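Section 3.1: Structural characterization of target chains.
Under the original work plan, the team committed to producing a structural model for every single-chain target entering the pipeline before any wet-lab resources were allocated. The record below documents one such target. The sequence was received from the expression subgroup and is listed exactly as submitted; it comprises 475 residues.
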Amino acid sequence: MGKIIIAGIGPGSKEDITPAVMQAVGEADVVVGYKYYFQFVTPYLKEGCECVDTGMKRERERAEQAFLLAGQGKTVVVISSGDAGIYGMAPLVYEMKRERQAGIDIEVLPGISAFQKAASLLGAPIGHDLCLVSLSDLMTPWESIERRIHAAATGDFVTAVYNPKSHDRYWQLYRLQELFLQERSADTPVGYVRQAGRDEQQVKLTTLADFNPEDVDMFTVIIIGNSQSYIADGRFITPRGYYRNTPTEAEKKGQQIMMESFRTISRELRRQDYPLGHKWALLHAIHTTADFDMEDILHTDDGAVETLYNKVKDGTLKTIVTDVTMVASGIRKGALGRLGIEAKCYLGDSRVAALTTPLSSGEGPEARPLTRTQAGIRLAVEEHPDALFAFGNAPTALMELCDLIRKGKARPAGIIAAPVGFVHVRESKHMVKPFHHIPKIIIEGRKGGSNLAATLCNAILTFDDAAQLKPGRDL
């Protein structure tokens, strides 16, 4: 009685064939496989070795031939590209042995898989938990494949995609991209390698948003990163976590916790394609409140966070004025000192008392006393008309600023509108929206608070950490 050896010959180059497979091929009486792969093993066959090709998509016939020849007492090597146990011949041969109740010995020799070869060419993209998904629906219903894609995306697995496309299967890869974009950031690294290890080899790096399914074919393996993956020096890296376990002086435990919280929030967002500035503000808002309603109620003008950060960097924005002291207290002192910014609240200024006393007993507007927060904003505008104004408590203070802007007395660098409550709150936020020339961040509706206003200031001051999703530098 002969035997069957199922051998993975690697992705296609001599250097990637293991010594064990080389030896098995060299001792075989018969090699069974798809004829395209014979070119990779022919130089190592012994004299008189028979090569049996059953053609493309004839896997069952190959297995049947192997059992027939092994039954004649021959040593049969069944070859698969890559690893024979990964979308290869090994499972089929074992199933056929069980079906036939055959007494023939079977041995499996592992090979270097195409996804491993592709990963090595891309850098180190599979350094953490990963899964493999085949888009071929010849033997698996698409409904099952889609469920697996969704599980991979939501589970934050690095994902290698086999059989991404064929002449008839043109739309499935677009659907995979759509599903991943619902769960992953648009800038998630994507690498793909065509004909890995062969003369026609092509290696490309891009992002999930920029990836074009038209660039790939059946001979391509695609690797999609997880939430920690990044591209550096032209290499695709997925960290294992060693550096996270040995934080530097600048990365204390509190920052580690904040970074992990931001990654968790990012994974749970309904959308992953937010502009970076808006997403950075949104992550701060949700981190502070644990309220995912922020996805619906946080408004940022186009480029508002970026614009305000650039004003800080170029020195044109030097002051943040807050309506109440709790907002100023929540702005990180480390960031203020690092950037040379002053956070001020005029609520405790001695001049406030004079402004809150009625000026006359008449009927005009001047007869109505200002609230203390209104008075504080009026004083602030006199001294810092071009400050960033942040409101986390008092709608009347925000309304006062709007009035001063309309009168030409204030020209804020930006406005954070997050007053909270039930009286005049919504109206105050509507009042600020017509100032299209002023960058604004607004918490719509009744929600808001000093903590929100402060964290949105922190988002602006740390925007240079947004791309790497690395908050908490100034904790």
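DSSP finds 18 helices and 19 strands in the chain.
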